[in-house]
Amino acid sequence: MDFLEFLTPAFWVAVGQIILIDILLGGDNAVVIALACRGLPPKQRKLGIIYGTAGAIVLRVILIAFALALLAIPYLKFVGGLLLIWIGVKLLLPQDDGDEHGNIQSSDKLWGAVKTVIIADLVMSVDNVLAIAGAAESAGQHQLPLVIFGLLVSIPIIVAGSQIVLKLMDRFPVIIVLGGMLLGWIAGQMMYTDPGLKPYLPDAKTWEYATAAAGALLVLVLGKFVFGRAKEAPEAT
């Protein structure tokens, strides 16, 4: 019976959400890995990439396991949902041209490069962890196996195909928009299912989906029409 839960649509929808979230929010990981390993001898670069990526995966699974437990605390999911909405809005804002990776230092030692990758991933993973934990909640009892599976699928895509993914995003900006709205959808679900608010809200999937849709729409409106236009305004003058 437990195995059949892995075949349910909810499980695979959550897998798809995790992969999309990790590609959208984790695209910088490939850049960080490249910068951290660029000082290694050619023969060690591949090992640096493999070990650094493996360490980052293990660390992120641990963080998400803690996040899944913390989301059971009353009102924490509501606060997390608000933060996730802002992350989604930032995803839709015009990007600055500044080089935000200039402070990533390379190392000529294998384990030094691996340590740099893992620490940088830890600093950059807050948004990923929160979004993935929210997406995994819709999968029922097998949340952590879902997270591990989703990360194992998505991280190689980021590392091996980051340039392809970035080009697709440049060519089809709707991917970014849909990704931001997905974060808003997950935020709405998180806020509606908060243990502290649950006694005061109707226990109906229709209301949950309506709140999720409202979160997706809020991210779109704020990102594209409110903060987006405000950020573009000074550039036009």
UniProtKB/TrEMBL annotation:
Annotated membrane topology: Multi-pass membrane protein
Transmembrane segments: 12-37, 49-69, 142-160, 172-192, 207-227
UniProt keyword Glycoprotein, yes or no: no
Subcellular location: Membrane
Keyword Transmembrane: yes
InterPro entries: Integral_membrane_TerC, Integral_membrane_YjbE
Keywords from the UniProt entry: Membrane, Transmembrane, Transmembrane helix
PANTHER family for the chain: MEMBRANE BOUND PREDICTED REDOX MODULATOR, SLL1022 PROTEIN
Protein family: Belongs to the TerC family.
Protein name per Swiss-Prot or TrEMBL: TerC family protein
Protein's organism: Ramlibacter pallidus
